[in-house]
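seq/struct pair 1
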Amino acid sequence: MDTEAFYRYLTQARRQLWTTLRAMPDEALSQAVIPTEGARCIKDLVKHVAIVEDGWFRLDLLGQPLVLETFGGEPTSADAYWHHQDEPLESLLAYWEAVESDTLGRWPELMDVVSADRRVPVSEDRLETLSADEVIWHVMQHEVRHTAQVVQMIRLLGRQPPALDLVFLTAH
């Protein structure tokens, strides 16, 4: 499976997940399920998945402004980055949808960066670099991992999560 096909699978999985989340009460989506300094509730992970794609694809690969800038700008603290329990789900999903739409619109540009064999730093404080292809796969794998966390959180909250496995969404 190539990168574009896998990203298309993610868009299908998102639709299933978003439908489930929209049917859940806000108290459940905002409830701290994981005892951590980072993402504690479902809403935290929704924002985190979107901002990681936004940052890696727009800033690091394309050198473009974040989609987040049209949604109030970058967080100014760790708390503002991680914790979104008081934000409406629809605002968080609107941001994720905007990131997805921008990614789909810029897919040819992203593939041009991959073809150019460009490398980007892992982070500002490390010397290692990643190829653009590795960045794209990292972002997609990151989403799968955190979506699995959301599915588990939905179960821990006593609800039925959607079936998001690739086999269920891509089989003919």
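seq/struct pair 2
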Amino acid sequence: MSSYDENVKYCMEYTEKEIELLKEMETFQKKTNVEKIQIETGNLPVPLKKLLQIKNRINIFNNIEHKSLISIITDVQFEKFAKGDVIVQEGSKCSDMFFILMGECQIVVNKTAVGYLKGGHIFGEIAAVFQTARTASVISSKNSTTTLSFKLNHEVSKKYPIAFMELYKNVAKELSMKLEAKNRGE
């Protein structure tokens, strides 16, 4: 059973009452742990602070509190790519997700261009969530394409089940929207 399957099974075993209790427990943990102190004192790394500032533009973070988000993501980086730079390679084992801040990227599967993504879109969620190889290559199609990349901290999924449940739900919505757009020929 994959880590994703275990996390989904773990999240689905809760009743509504247990979910409310978990939310209360997470709130208590957030009030007493180091992440809260870091937020209050401003000791967060600059990329993570910037991510929190634009969190509302990233659909997969909907309904996830700042403090939980800080715990479930790692390795936040801003990167600029020149036209033609390969951001991710099909088949590679990389667990980063990317949010395009500005610019445009070409999606390539089996050496065939299959689409484009622009600023405001996310990619890499399949490999990051399911911990699998990349299903496509993503290549910068404009100079100065800027991305925000990050990894999921799967090790804390049992400590933050509500946050992961929301994240998985949001990723499913994102994938559904991508499939619908592809079916419409966009």
